[in-house]
Amino acid sequence: MFQLFCAFLFFHVAITHGGVVKRETVTVCKQRPIELGIVLDSSSSISYKDFQKSIDFLQDFVSQYDIGDGHNDVRVSLITFGKGIYRQDAFDLTSYSTKEALMEAIAQVPHRVGLYTSTGEAIEYMSQTQLSVDVSRPWAKRISIVITDGNSQIWRQTRDASQAARDSGIDIYAVGVGRVRREELLRIAGDEKNVLKVDSYDQLKEIKEMLAYKTCTEVEKTTTTTTTTTTTTPPPQTQKCGEENPADIYFVFSPAELGLESTSWTTSFVSTTVKQEEMDEGFRFGVVSGSCPDDEGFDLDDYTSAEEIDNRLTSYLRPRMSGLVKRLSTSGYSQVSGGRSEARDVAVLVAKSGKRNKGLEAEVRLLQEKGVQVFIVDPTGSTISIEGATTLTGLTAKEASTNLVSHLCPVRTGQA
Fold it and tell me: Residue 52, SS3?
């Protein structure tokens, strides 16, 4: 069963004559009953391989849920579009009642290569037929995910059909791939927070958990424990720095550029940091790394000319940090990624000095414009100096970690 645990932890302490009563409240995201309507672009602007990547993404996405007819289960419908809609490939909420059958049905959806982009017609069919109130469970939330890489020819139809669907109570999430205009996605979703944009079909996997989080429901659970004590006076309490000044911290690095030895140093640096005593309250940690399918090479039938192969090989030489920082600045600190409005946004960029990282100034500036506090560390011990960023010193991972913590917590607990 799909379940996300959100790291919101609050402590309420009451002092009584008999002991200390501690109530711990944890916000938990659990699956709720959903009627999920998938609207998938099957037009000619999408290559066969990219269409298969969208199919793979949908299979990975729905695999997170309990599929079935139970009260809290998720039911799924699908309609594809290109030149019109392809009803012969569609299935409805009641078509498949097991995860295995649903996954197989998604795998069999063909790419029709339509010479048009009838997005509005597909949304209308989804809302009026597949997710209509007549066929949906009254207690279940109706949600639609529209995936497209192009702009609809009749944009007013798309706008009007999307508005009607939302007015009927359907939440729509617009997933745009590549060059599709943001205005088109906003017309579909109706709200910026329901728009997700990626540069390529390879990147769809990066938004899987974000989409899942948006569909979960939050339930507060409170547990109470009592500990006997011999005093009625509370002991003096000293807040740790994270309680006074919390931070959401991302470590950003590209294993392809660092190499095996420096990547090992980096993982040790991150691990040492999160284990330090000062970090056990008020801090959250995330990683943005450069691992992606493009690093794995290509198959025999991917390219048909020497020029295409040469262009692909050249891509291995391009710096990766720019893309990683862009990904972080776009959604890394958002609420759906676990970001907190009351916490500092912190980024720790791990990079080697040299020609390939001369562009770090632009990445630091981008993060600064977003209000992010930036640190830079070089696993080789060199000191990369960039205006607006704090350079961490220390040759070993432990020394660099201690230096980072000293910046995040300049006054240690228990010290004058």
Answer: helix
318/343 Cα distance (integer angstroms): 33
Residue type present at position 317? L
CA-CA distances (angstroms) from residue 204 to 54, 55, 57, 65, 261?
7, 10, 6, 18, 30
Pairing of strands 84-85, 195-198: unpaired
d(CA 38, CA 125) in angstroms, rounded, equals: 11
Query: How many other CB atoms sit within 10 Å of the CB of residue 218?
Result: 12
Q: What is the pLDDT of residues 15-56, one digit of tens each?
A: 333 444 444 433 344 567 899 999 999 999 999 999 999 999
Residues 374 and 273: their CA atoms lie apart, in Å, by 16
For the chain, helix, strand, coil in percent to 5 are: 40, 25, 35
DSSP string, 333-394: TSGGGT--TTSEEEEEEE--SSGGGTTHHHHHHHHHHTT-EEEEE-TTS-----TTEEEP--
Under a CB-based contact definition with an 8 Å cutoff, are residues 110 and 81 in contact? no
CA 87 to each of CA 92, 125, 196, 405: distance values in angstroms, whole numbers, following the listed order:
10, 9, 26, 58
Nearest to 166, CA basis, from 191, 192, 185: 191
pTM given for the model: 0.51
Which residue, chain included where needed, has tokens 């299979």?
59
| Secondary structure (3-state) at 186 | helix
Helices (H), 14-152: 48-62, 99-107, 119-125
Quick: pLDDT tens for 83-136: 999 999 999 999 999 999 999 999 999 999 999 999 999 999 999 999 999 999
Token pair belonging to 75: 């039911």
Question: Tell me, what DSSP letter sits at residue 331?
Answer: I
List the structure tokens of 405.
């913590």
CA of residue 291 relative to chain centroid, distance: 15
Structure tokens at 409: 């917590």
CB atoms near residue 210 (< 10 Å): 14
